[in-house]
């Protein structure tokens, strides 16, 4: 049974990553009929929403695109920044969706930002406490590790509405501005949905692992 569980938590993230990479690769070769680059798309949406102060910059890497709320910058990977593909404009619009969330004070985004230091600390120390607790049969340390891990899992869960909402905003914006047209809406949704799968997979695996550890803890307490 354990090996089945292990296969599940390994295969789910791998499948999600393969899906997003294959979908992105496919639609990065499909040109958007508007002819706009990812950078132009991002700038147009930002200006349309009055976010003139938010910069759009190129960043190295593949699918390294992100929005940095600290210095109000949308950073797009080279291919998406310069490219005219459906995938590129979809990713650019998604990242701008986060900038709009930031501007509006979107609740789940604020919660996620607040959880960042707690989640980082929790993910770093939780497994140390869990391993010591399990190996030394110290249920108290195991419980402490589970609590810290729960903070990291909560971060993963809160990330889901943030990402889905950014994608929803992205679709509304690219359609309204005419960046994509007709059948491109379906193609753009495929890119955004594939990317969302990685977050769903990460959250699912995190929850499953947390539940497993809670069961280990209850079993250990039962033996005390």
TrEMBL record:
Domain of life (superkingdom): Bacteria
Keywords (A to Z) from UniProt: Hydrolase, Membrane, Protease, Transmembrane, Transmembrane helix
Molecular-function GO term, any one: peptidase activity
Single biological process term from Gene Ontology: proteolysis
Ranges that cross the membrane: 127-155, 191-215
Protein name: Zn-dependent protease
Species this chain originates from: Peribacillus asahii
């Amino acid at each position: 049974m354990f090996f089945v569980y292990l296969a599940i938590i390994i295969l789910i993230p791998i499948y999600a990553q393969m899906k997003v990479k294959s979908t992105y690769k496919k639609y990065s070769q499909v040109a958007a009929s508007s002819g706009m680059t990812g950078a132009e798309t991002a700038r147009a949406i930002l200006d349309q929403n009055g976010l003139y102060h938010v910069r759009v910059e190129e960043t190295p890497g593949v699918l390294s695109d992100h929005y940095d709320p600290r210095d109000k910058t949308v950073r797009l990977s080279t291919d998406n920044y310069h490219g005219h593909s459906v995938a590129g404009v979809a990713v650019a619009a998604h990242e701008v969706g986060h900038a709009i969330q930031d501007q509006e004070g979107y609740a789940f985004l604020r919660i996620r930002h607040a959880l960042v230091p707690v989640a980082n600390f929790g993910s770093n120390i939780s497994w140390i406490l869990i391993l010591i607790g399990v190996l030394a049969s110290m249920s108290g340390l195991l419980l402490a590790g589970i609590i810290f891990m729960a903070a990291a899992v909560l971060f993963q869960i809160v990330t889901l509405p943030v990402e889905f909402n950014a994608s929803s905003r992205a679709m509304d914006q690219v359609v309204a501005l005419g960046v994509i047209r007709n059948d491109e809406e379906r193609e753009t949704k495929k890119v955004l949905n594939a990317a969302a799968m990685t977050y769903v997979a990460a959250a699912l695996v995190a929850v499953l692992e947390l539940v497993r550890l809670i069961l280990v803890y209850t079993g250990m307490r039962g033996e005390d």
